[in-house]
């Protein structure tokens, strides 16, 4: 493989905080590498160093000559007065600079150097740069190219930055949290786009499905060192556990020997002759291993939530609109005890607005929301990250509570609770302003959970959290004895935590799906495939009335059809079962065997068709 990038003995620190020390790795043509580390370990700093946006203390970074490198920052910034299309020409990529050079040449009398510029423009494919920009922006569902940047949402801005990187067609693409603020459709589009291309990748992402499907290698920064795994995320989990088990075993053996050697070291100096100096030196090496950090298995955090009654909340005929945009359209729902609901849907369909109505931060246009007296909300919002920068981390938590009850007379102190969420004792006594973005998110999460709520409402909790923290949070929510609503674009997280979904389709069309995100995705793909096949059949009526909101009552005719379908489906299933039993009996004649073998596929088609129609009708009333 052709080497693209080589990093040798790289060290970076901020004051007395060493992020990584003497790390080395390389990226070759075609490699797709995911970078994993806890928040605060220097993931973003490392990417900024590689993109030449930040300096480093020691080491060497070597790129292949003439390599095109694209960098997607975690939080992209553009001047607000730029339009969407102008933003694609804003960052000084080589192609953009070449276009500007060509334009200056055209404005200069005599056009000096034009022949050379024309050849370079042809080589860099700069002529169709604007066309490529518009094409990728359209694929990312941004079609108003003259819209000012300042009017874009966080998700739209991320898509503009993504287009900005992709149109340069880099050889090596470096991405920091590419799926943050992207909805599920866009995340899946990006997955497919990256898998179609041949570009090399280095990326940081908390989206484990994305990591699994796009990357074929993982590198991990742990305790300032770097570890490499030649496989996807699932392979990494397996091999990392093997490494941890081996490291813990080595530390345990060293501890046993250390106790013996320590006793020898404590004897009078006279008892140690000159020849034993090598043993003394070996003791200090052994001490380093014995005192090395061990990887403790995560203790299950079985927090006792405050009592919650049988009445949680009831939404009764809620309506909410912003101009022509409908968020809720006659929405009614009764939330049950210990329910764990996920909310999914594209950006702009009203997920966060629904949460704010529930929390009393937005008022519905009409309808009523009745919340039970025993409900104690814990609300994690996208805008709630506000701290006194001069406070210590431990003080932020103890200001809320000194202890948290676990039940059965057990309790955790604030420090122990923070430690469970990966804040070391040293970090706990550090100031908030020293925390990384991901560590601040983690601290904010702790402030929500420390209040001991019985109803958690989490709006995009996975953004900027590292994978290790997500695993802790998943475990916490799985054992949480209360109610949970999660709005998230993290498919893996949703699969782990929720038992059903509210799917926001837009214009107030909201469906309740009984299952997790993977169940919903499989059902949706099967339905789309069936509709595609149905549309391809000749002489079939293809035009149906389009409804912006299908949550209505069935007509009398549809109700009769629905009831008849139930009878027909039951009859067809009985017939299918009888045919399958007969075919397996070995008692049929050749003619009977032929007849029943021909009938079975026809029967299956009829069953599929009637079942799909039954599903369509059953969706009308949810």
From TrEMBL:
GO molecular function: ATP binding
Domain ABC transporter: from-to ranges: 5-248, 313-531
Keyword match ATP-binding: yes
Record-linked InterPro entries: AAA+_ATPase, ABC_tran_C, ABC_tran_Xtn, ABC_transporter-like_ATP-bd, ABC_transporter-like_CS, ABCF_ATPase, P-loop_NTPase, Val-tRNA_synth_C_sf
Superkingdom as given in the UniProt entry: Bacteria
Keywords: ATP-binding, Nucleotide-binding
Keyword ATP-binding: yes
Name of protein: ABC-F family ATP-binding cassette domain-containing protein
Lineage: Bacteria, Pseudomonadati, Bacteroidota, Bacteroidia, Bacteroidales
């Amino acid at each position: 493989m052709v080497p693209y990038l080589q990093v040798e003995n790289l060290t970076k620190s901020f004051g007395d905080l060493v992020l990584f020390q003497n790390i080395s790795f390389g990226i070759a043509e075609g490699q797709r590498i995911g970078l994993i580390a806890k928040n605060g370990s220097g993931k973003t700093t490392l990417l900024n160093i590689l993109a030449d946006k930040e300096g480093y203390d020691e080491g060497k970074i070597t790129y292949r000559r003439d390599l095109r490198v694209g960098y997607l920052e975690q939080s992209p910034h553009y001047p607000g007065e730029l339009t969407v299309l102008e933003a694609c020409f804003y960052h000084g990529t080589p192609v953009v600079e070449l276009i500007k050079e060509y334009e200056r040449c055209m404005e200069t009398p005599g056009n000096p150097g034009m022949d050379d510029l024309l050849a370079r423009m042809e080589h860099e494919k700069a002529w169709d740069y604007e066309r490529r920009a518009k094409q990728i922006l359209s694929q990312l569902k941004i079609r108003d190219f003259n819209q000012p940047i300042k009017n874009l949402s966080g998700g739209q801005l991320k898509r503009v930055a993504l287009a900005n990187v992709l149109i340069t067609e880099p050889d090596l693409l470096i991405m920091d949290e590419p799926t943050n603020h992207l909805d599920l459709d866009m995340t899946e589009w990006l997955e497919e786009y990256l898998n179609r291309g041949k570009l090399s990748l280095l990326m940081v992402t908390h989206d484990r499905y994305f990591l699994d499907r796009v990357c074929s290698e993982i590198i991990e920064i742990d305790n300032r060192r770097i570890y490499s795994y030649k496989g996807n995320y699932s392979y990494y989990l397996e091999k990392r556990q093997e490494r941890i088990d081996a490291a813990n075993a080595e530390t345990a053996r060293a501890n046993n020997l250390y106790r013996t050697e320590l006793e020898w070291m404590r004897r009078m100096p006279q008892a140690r002759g000159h020849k034993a100096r090598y043993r003394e030196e070996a003791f200090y090496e052994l001490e380093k291993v014995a005192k090395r950090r061990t990887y403790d298995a995560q203790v299950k955090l079985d927090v006792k939530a405050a009592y919650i009654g049988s009445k949680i909340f009831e939404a009764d005929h809620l309506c909410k609109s912003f101009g022509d945009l409908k968020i809720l359209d006659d929405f009614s729902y009764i939330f049950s005890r210990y329910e764990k609901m996920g909310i999914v849907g594209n950006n702009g369909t009203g997920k966060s607005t629904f949460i704010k109505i529930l929390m009393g931060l937005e008022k519905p246009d009409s309808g009523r929301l009745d919340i039970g007296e025993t409900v104690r909300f814990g609300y994690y919002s996208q805008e709630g990250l506000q701290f006194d920068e001069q406070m210590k981390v431990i003080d932020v938590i103890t200001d809320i509570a000194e202890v948290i009850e676990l039940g059965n007379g057990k309790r955790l102190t604030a420090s122990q609770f923070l430690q469970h969420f990966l804040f070391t004792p040293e970090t706990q006594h550090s100031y908030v302003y020293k925390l990384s973005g991901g560590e601040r998110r983690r601290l904010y999460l702790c402030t929500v959970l420390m209040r001991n709520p019985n109803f958690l409402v989490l709006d995009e909790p996975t953004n900027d959290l590292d994978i290790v923290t997500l695993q802790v949070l998943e475990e916490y929510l799985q054992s949480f004895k209360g109610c949970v609503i999660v709005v998230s674009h993290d498919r893996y997280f949703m699969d782990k935590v929720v038992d059903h979904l509210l799917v926001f389709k837009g214009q107030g069309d909201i469906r309740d799906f009984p299952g997790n995100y993977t169940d919903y995705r499989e059902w949706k793909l099967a339905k789309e495939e069936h509709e595609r096949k149905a549309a391809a059949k000749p002489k079939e009526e293809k035009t149906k009335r389009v409804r912006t909101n299908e949550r209505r009552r069935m007509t009398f005719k549809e109700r009769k059809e629905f009831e008849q379908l139930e009878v027909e489906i039951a009859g067809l299933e009985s017939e299918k079962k009888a045919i399958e039993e007969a075919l397996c009996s070995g008692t049929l004649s050749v003619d009977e065997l032929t007849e029943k073998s021909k009938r079975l596929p026809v029967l299956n088609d009829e069953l599929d068709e009637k079942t799909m129609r039954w599903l369509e009708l059953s969706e009308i009333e949810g």
